Amino acid sequence: MASSTAQRRLLQEYRALTNNPPEGITAGPVSEDDLLYWEALIQGPEGTPFEGGIFPAELKFPKDYPLAPPSMRFLGEVWHPNVYPSGLVCISILHPPGDDPNHYEHASERWSPIQSVEKILISVMSMLAEPNDESPANVEAAKQWREQRDEYEKKIYSTAEERVPVPVWHYVRERMLYKLGSD
User: Fold this and answer.
1) Pairing verdict, β 71-74 and 34-43
2) Where are the domains of the chain?
3) Hey, which residues are catalytic here?
4) 114-146 pLDDT tens trace
5) SS3 at position 37
6) What are the EC numbers (predicted)?
7) Rounded to whole angstroms, how far apart are CA atoms 148 and 143?
8) Which superfamily, per CATH, for 4-178?
9) How far apart are CA 54 and CA 50, in angstroms?
């Protein structure tokens, strides 16, 4: 069971996301019985090879949230330098607080309790548009992004085309909000 601090904070963040959702992002707990497990839908950023796709993901929060960061994983193939083949997202904001033992990122870029689910999701959307190839989670994707950009983009287009088309985005979002609101 989550601590009352984690539950209060996650409920507060869910309300904020529901009342003022960032464009192209929908997220919330799968069930009111377990606020530590969320699903999210991220619309591929315009002007990128991800445009036109909708990418489902899951967020798993630790019991001591917000002191420790959640983990985030895409549910399906996402070819990207900062996404492990398993779908696990690798960006600074999801790394534990403190100094980076590998010296790739500053402590200020890593998780802190002032961060939020909204900030994570916006950071992931930005990551889709602008990969960080200095410390890749997927070395092959990073290599292709650096050396064969056209092939990299073709691979992304092919996976994005398999995703839900953009006009369905509003329907999916409304169904998700209705489902969570009726529990």
Assistant:
1) unpaired
2) 4-178
3) 90
4) 899 999 999 999 999 999 888 899 999 999 999
5) strand
6) 2.3.2.23
7) 8
8) Ubiquitin Conjugating Enzyme (3.10.110.10)
9) 8
